[in-house]
Amino acid sequence: MDHIRNFSIIAHIDHGKSTLADRFIQFCGGLEMREMSEQVLDSMDIEKERGITIKAQTAALQYKARDGKTYNLNLIDTPGHVDFSYEVSRSLAACEGALLVVDASQGVEAQTVANCYTAIEQGVEVRPVLNKIDLPAADPDRVAQEIEDIIGIEAGGAVHASAKSGIGIEDILEEVVNKIPPPKGDIDAPLKALIIDSWFDNYVGVIMLVRVVDGVLRPKDKILFMSSKAQHLCEQVGVFTPKSVQRPELKAGEVGFVIAGIKELASAKVGDTITTVKIPAAEPLPGFKDVKSQVFAGLYPVESHDYEKLRDSLEKLQLNDASLNYEPEVSSALGFGFRCGFLGLLHLEIVQERLEREFDMDLITTAPTVKYELVLRGGETVQIENPSKLPDPSKYDEVREPIITATILVPQDYVGPVMTLCNQKRGQQVNMQYLGRQVMLTYDLPMAEVVMDFFDKLKSVSRGYASLDYDFKEFRVGDLVKLDVLVNSERVDALSLIVHRSMSQYRGRELVAKMRELIPRQMFDIAVQAAIGSQIVARETVKAVRKDVLAKCYGGDVSRKRKLLDKQKAGKKRMKQVGNVEIPQEAFLAILQVSDK
Amino acid sequence: MHTISLAQLGSSGLSALPPLALYIHFPWCVKKCPYCDFNSHAVRDANYPSGLPEAQYIDALISDLESNLPQVWGRSVSSIFMGGGTPSLFSAASMDRLLEAIRARVKLNPDAEITLEANPGTFEIEKFAGYAAAGINRLSIGIQSFNAEHLSALGRIHNRDEALRAVEIAHQHFANFNLDIMYALPQQTLAQAQADIRLAIECNSTHLSAYHLTLEPNTLFHRYPPQLPDDDLAADMQEMIEAELASAGFGHYETSAFYKKSQNRDYRSQHNLNYWQFGDYLGIGAGAHGKISFHDKIIRQARYKQPSEYLAKMAAGNAIQTENVVEKAELPFEFMLNLLRLTEGFPLALFTERTGLPQSKIFAEIERACSEGLLERDLHWVKPTDKGQRFLNVLMERFLP
After folding, report:
1. Do A548 and B394 touch (CB under 8 A)?
2. Which of A154, A491, B166, B363 is most buried, by the most CB atoms less than 10 A from its CB?
């Protein structure tokens, strides 16, 4: 086991983690040159386009170190975005060490800090690396000091590297070999393997990524899932280099994949322990806590007859994304659809994009919302995930909204604007700490305000320098009201929002103004109104268009005019008919485009 | 004894063939206008250092017609339209030779309308007398505007005086002619549009076409859009133009077409009416389209667009690039695309006569449009309401297959 090193990379988005992983794979010859594409570990198209890592991936590398010995390095890649932080702790559970990669010009960011603390709590050895050292703006000494100040780990000897230019790659690998401890475990003990991740493959069924803690796992072993008690026959084991390569066995200390002809993801739950039926382990390994949805939105097919297709697509998507929840929902405006739960706004966007891209769905997404707690007149407490379900105020005593504790790291120059933003979003300051050049702000914020556009706003008021991490704190009573939108006097349930009373008038005005811009002019005037209860707080009119006619049409024109009208018709198809008004998809998300005072 | 026609069975059989018109395309212009999406090619760019291949092109047109005669055997031709491009770049002698060749090969109705599109440039105006002598009995003059700024924005090479001069000469030789006017031009005001239409009315032509300038794909304007009046102003212009023309004694018979009302004569364009009534037409010349009905099918043809390619193919015997039978499912749309443009609407029986399909194919959509106030109908006749005329695209879309 002395020649095994299991490690992951902790880094903020854009700090160069995926590029660094590429360099390791290249250096150790995991892939031929012709097989290298940029960000090889990010296999989903969306990951490559957005430059983010959504699911954990691994690569088993053979590294011939300066001491002459060859080491098996298992790199476990982790996502960098706050929405997917639960995946980080899973990946770390399979490691003895982690490289903390920090951009030598940008410095430490909040997400990195949070992930680093998770690693330290889990007893993982954290080694700092200063990346992008060759940028003109790089200031390695200052950033090293910042790592010591904020995270509290020794950073004086941090490796200087540039993943992009290939500087310092071997030094980092030496650091991994020399500073990260080899795995402990008993190869002769009964099998204990932790499921770190699992996903569905159309050809082989469920693939599980496991870390073997004790014992040995071989094909033909009859395996037992300790929490679900399911039994399966192990068919294949192997490692990713990152290509999948079959191996005769996986031993204690190793990370690899297991295929056991499993058809449902539910029977291979992440966090479960695999052992053998023949000689079962006495105790399972500690698992992971379940992830809960934080953000909710309705997903509806534009064409109502696509409902079945949407259900099938969500089902398939869930095979690979256990954090996606959905249940059927009916809207009087949009018909049959699903209320879906997501980890965050980015997760929502990714699911929406995958449904459109991989499953060719035409969707209407309603504005994202959070879960509210309602104390009814009778004293009963219920939760609602859909604003239109908020009953008349006479029916309940109080509404409670979820509050998060947000940790924001921002350079001193931008503290003012960030605090103003937090106050606008009804935040309460909990703490403020100066850490070298940066300031760590801690705020309690209503989660509903954060899921909307807080992250984008934070980036824009701090010129991209502020970073954010957050945790759910509690449900807190708030003066909250339901804001309804009426289109030609008809209430459109899919547009209802729950907002704080102090912001309700303003939001109502801005929302209908935005809707007026987004709804195309039609054959008649369209009134768009915002209402709280029976009181109209804002009104705008989409003036009727006066004509829609082709000026010319002669003998040779048929196919050209046909094309034009086909296009126009296809455009209308992407709109939803509500009453006799056609509302485009983006209008249902108009609230996201409303700016605050 | 009952004979049940194919048409009544709905299996695309025509009980009678519609009138047949002849369209002749002339693909050259002095220069290409930035709004024009017709098949036209600038003379200067063409590979003809010694001028247009006029004689060669006339020969090609004659062979083109000849090779298509079997498709229209025994049918007479009700009208001829020479369009472009700029047909008036061709000499009167060439037109005379062409018309003579046509008369020798098809039966041309004695009162057939024979229209030539002409630009109001000095070079063209001088040929008007010759065109009349060749048998052309109607002109369509592309004035577009009398305003110097707008003419230059449209890339037109004539000026106001030439336009008025062209009208004067046209009056000397033609009892029937059309003026093309465009509105909603770059930076145009309502007053300017009104000045244009009033001057056009003073010209006392028998027909006026008033087109809303449209940015068509594959034009310079589409790629570099000019600053155009907004939708409301353009709609104001249209209403103003319709009112001006109505009070000047013009009838409005198609979306953009107006005719001088007269006791003695119907000044509507017979050739264009035939398109809008879903009649047949043979199209000869580069890029020309044709629609020809048979008792069991309707076909559409298109010829090669590039003049040089057309000439080469024609020399080899055939310049038809595509020829296809119109699918039955397309016919309701194609019929409605044309017929709904007519303000007077159409007799319901015409649908079956022209498409061979039962009226049930369009009935549901007609009923729906009636209930929304876009169409009105009685037992035999359907016509667009004022609102329907303004929202023809909405109506036509519904008949798309």
Report:
1. yes
2. B166
